[in-house]
């Protein structure tokens, strides 16, 4: 009996030790800007997130399960909340799981349609984590919402997630009459990596005249390029929860199947040749970012000479299915109207600012909301009770307002 209990006791001690380490090393030392309201909430949220990551890494080292699987399992333990005004149906488009949200209220005209792609860096996030958000969008905008459960890491690397989302979107667009959706009012929407996927879907479907055109795109702190990691927001917000540089690089390197040993090389810009930087600097350069976002803690960094071995392994980042922000003007100018939400204390803030400028320069209508107290992942706190941030409600309200104007 004692032999059987020993491993359990050791595991319990390990988990307790990790918990104490996270609390002592992160709760009091986390980089929380003064402008973010409710700093204690964010410290608690950050500690809980780091605990799940650390425990997941222990499980991974013990070969019980991968870290992403463990964290997703824990996130999905919360029971789904039912909304009496929304009908939720679980479906499969081929092998791709999706959730369909339809308002119960009667409508004598076809409804708007929303295809939603959840965030999580292709590591975290699921149909369940964004369930309440999709319910809210369906109810408040009177829309039929399709949430796509694309495949994620560690088993499924680039470009599996994007291809799943494109396939599910095409299936939905071909079935609009079944769901009572107006083909002239279909919107793609997502947060974080899901926001990037929304733009990629728009770009990929431009050459599909047999499908209804996407009416608009809603991008909430979207990942829009995987090339440059020296912009102001990468310097200013590299240690701010919930997306710091270390976790962002982990997601990026796992998704593209790149050796993490290239981390410092990539950070210094030595993973791409000078001609590539010259070609894309007109769109990615810091001069495209408004001055007010460069006033604090930003210092332009010279790029180091090319490391050819790093380039051979990382040039996949230039694929437009990773970096839709660097698509040619001919493609960008055809994109639909956009609603862009950026957060001041987000590592990826400048993605939104650069994308906004590109669209506006090409005459594409843009509605922009900047959350001065926002951070990456804040939308997901919408249904977290005590840990909810008011900023999440403002973001959802902005999304609903944009939808209702279409």
From TrEMBL:
Residue ranges constituting the Alpha/beta hydrolase fold-3 domain according to the UniProt record: 114-259, 309-379
Domain of life per record: Eukaryota
InterPro entries, per database record: AB_hydrolase_3, AB_hydrolase_fold, Arylacetamide_deacetylase, GDXG_lipolytic_enzyme
SUPFAM superfamilies with a match to the protein in the record: alpha/beta-Hydrolases (SSF53474)
Pfam families per the UniProt record, alphabetical: Abhydrolase_3
Keyword Chaperone assigned: no
Homology family: Belongs to the 'GDXG' lipolytic enzyme family.
Protein name according to UniProt: Arylacetamide deacetylase like 3
Source organism (scientific name): Panthera tigris altaica
């Amino acid at each position: 009996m004692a032999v059987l209990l020993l491993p359990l006791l050791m595991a319990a001690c390990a988990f307790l030790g990790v918990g104490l380490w996270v609390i002592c090393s992160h709760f009091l030392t986390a980089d929380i800007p003064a402008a973010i309201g409710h700093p204690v909430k964010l410290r608690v949220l950050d500690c809980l997130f780091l605990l799940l990551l650390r425990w997941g890494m222990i499980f991974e080292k013990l070969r019980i399960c991968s870290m992403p699987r463990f964290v997703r399992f824990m996130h999905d333990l919360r029971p789904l909340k039912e909304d009496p005004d929304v009908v939720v149906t679980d479906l499969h488009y081929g092998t791709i799981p999706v959730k369909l949200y339809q308002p119960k209220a009667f409508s004598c005209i076809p409804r708007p349609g929303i295809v939603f792609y959840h965030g999580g860096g292709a590591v975290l996030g699921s149909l369940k984590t964004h369930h309440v958000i999709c319910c809210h969008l369906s109810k408040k905008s009177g829309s039929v919402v399709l949430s796509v459960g694309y495949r994620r890491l560690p088993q499924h690397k680039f470009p599996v997630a994007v291809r799943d989302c494109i396939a599910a979107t095409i299936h939905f667009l071909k079935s609009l009459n079944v769901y009572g959706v107006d083909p002239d009012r279909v919107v793609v929407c997502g947060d974080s990596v899901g926001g990037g996927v929304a733009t990629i879907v728009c770009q990929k479907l431009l050459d599909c005249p047999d499908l209804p055109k996407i009416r608009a795109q809603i991008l909430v702190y979207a990942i829009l390029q995987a090339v440059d990691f020296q912009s102001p927001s990468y310097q200013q917000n590299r240690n701010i929860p919930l997306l710091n540089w270390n976790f962002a690089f982990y997601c990026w390197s796992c998704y593209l199947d790149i050796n993490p040993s290239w981390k410092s090389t990539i950070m210094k810009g030595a993973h791409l040749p000078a001609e590539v930087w010259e070609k894309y600097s007109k769109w990615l350069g810091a001069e495209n970012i408004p001055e007010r976002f460069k006033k604090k803690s930003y210092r332009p960094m010279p790029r180091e000479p090319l490391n050819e071995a790093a380039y051979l392994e990382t040039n996949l980042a230039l694929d437009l299915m990773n970096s839709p922000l660097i698509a040619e003007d001919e493609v960008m100018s055809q994109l639909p109207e956009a609603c862009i939400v950026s957060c001041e204390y987000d590592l990826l803030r400048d993605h939104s600012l650069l994308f906004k400028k590109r669209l506006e320069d090409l005459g594409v209508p843009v509605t922009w909301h900047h959350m001065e107290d926002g951070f990456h992942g804040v939308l997901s706190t919408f249904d977290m009770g005590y840990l909810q941030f008011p900023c999440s409600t403002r973001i959802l309200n902005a999304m609903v307002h944009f939808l209702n104007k279409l």
